[in-house]
Design brief:
This protein is α+β, with helices and mostly antiparallel strands and 127 residues long. The chain is 43% helix and 11% strand. The chain contains six helices and four strands, in the order E-H-E-H-H-E-E-H-H-H. A four-stranded mixed sheet has the order 2-1-3-4. Helix 4 runs antiparallel to helix 5. It starts with 5 loop residues before the first strand and ends in a 20-residue tail after the last helix. 28% of the residues are buried.
Amino acid sequence: MRTRPVLVYDGDCGFCTTSAGAAQRLLRPACDFTAWQSTDLDALGVAQARAEYEALWVAPDGVVHGGAQAVAKLLPRVGGVWAVVGAVLTLPPVRWIAHGVYRVIANNRGRLPGGTRACAAPARRPS
């Protein structure tokens, strides 16, 4: 059983890879980072379709949070003011706004700096 949470991101997307690298380097959260393409998603209890759709936070107990809530779960692992920001991101209506902002970014990541055609995310949430 894992003892540290894992942030799963799209390793084929330049924007996602750059964002994950910046979070690791600048924030230094107490978690692991892995591209979904190079990890055993079954072992994490995550479907590939979901990993293609959004960043995922997988807690050691197997609970999975996606999108903006994955970011909200990461921030307390940094501590300080970031923990407060993470807590605020879980509260309505901020949570709803964060979800919308995350979807706009995710759906347009191929147009963002570092993005390529490979960055195009599925437009619809997987079932």
